[in-house]
Design goal:
- The structure is a homodimer of 177-residue chains.
- By secondary structure, chain A is an alpha/beta fold.
- Chain A folds into 2 domains: 3-14 and 61-176, Rossmann fold (3-Layer(aba) Sandwich); 16-55, no CATH class.
- Chain A has helices at 16-27, 69-76, 94-105, 133-137, 163-176; strands spanning 3-7, 81-86, 114-117, 127-130, 142-146, 158-160.
- In chain A, helix 4 links the parallel strand 4 and strand 5.
- In chain A, helix 2 (69-76) packs parallel to helix 5 (163-176).
- Chain A is globular and about 50 Å long.
- Chains A and B meet through helix 3 and strand 3 of A and helix 3 and strand 3 of B.
- Strand 3 (114-117) of chain A pairs antiparallel with strand 3 of chain B.
Chain lengths: 177, 177
Amino acid sequence: MKRILIDMDEVIADVYPKFLDIFEREFGRRPDRMEFWGKKIYELPGADRVRGYLHDKGFFSDLPVMPGSQEVIRELMDHYEVFINSAAMEFRHSLTEKYDWLEEHFSFIPWKNVIFCGDKRALRGDYMIDDHVKNLRSFEGTPLLFTASHNALETDFIRVNNWEEVRAFFRGQREGA
Amino acid sequence: MKRILIDMDEVIADVYPKFLDIFEREFGRRPDRMEFWGKKIYELPGADRVRGYLHDKGFFSDLPVMPGSQEVIRELMDHYEVFINSAAMEFRHSLTEKYDWLEEHFSFIPWKNVIFCGDKRALRGDYMIDDHVKNLRSFEGTPLLFTASHNALETDFIRVNNWEEVRAFFRGQREGA
């Protein structure tokens, strides 16, 4: 069975509603997505302190599930070995929070198939779905770039804009095989 | 730079002093190491409940460092990219405890080089030092079996009995190269 490595933040967990709330609290306004198209919201001028909230206890506890991800991952698990992986190691609290979040929303994925890491260079699989170009570049299998504001201008990878497109991609792979 | 993947429990963290204490508390005696040679201490007749303590809060917080591991890993880091990895995902509390333990005893290893996982099949590297045969079998690089009671009868792998032998092995690799 081929292995798909699936990232968490901005792929199955949507961090942007929370970032927008924080931004609004800090700056008194809610930026339009096009304002930070091609970058992270905390790369907007003067907004670098927004990133600091990632270290806060609870940040990762209540993120919304990315639409369609549960359903499509269930379907993928009939045909592939699915591993969830996350660069959680930078944020101490995120470890238990992400563990519990997965238990709450993706309890159908066995704990054996979960990886929390720092750098993803030491991971191995056939496909990787990730929003970070640096993770995809070091991957030896087939990389899929999941659209997020910060990667919107990248053109080097097969792009999937949402989970419907992930489903379609893998259906295509199976029909082509 | 070649990559070495190094396991935690029974490789850099010694779980046995704690297991022996628990066994003594439960059964009123301290077993000799030869009694559980070739197996885990909790595989002794009637002792399976000893394994349950792995789920307890604090179990992984205060394990002693395996003698020589800090010094040898520092030396290895001059020549190799060292990743610490641990099958932490089964035990919820172990995530933060192992994170803090590494910070306390191996703060010279960057967080980018730490991986907590379930199954190790999705890891990639050139060498793996581990006490579990199942992890070594699925590894595509060079596997090194770190001696622990439960693997004492295995004969399929290059064996390292302690960190001095790890040092000697890698010195040999570099001289041979």
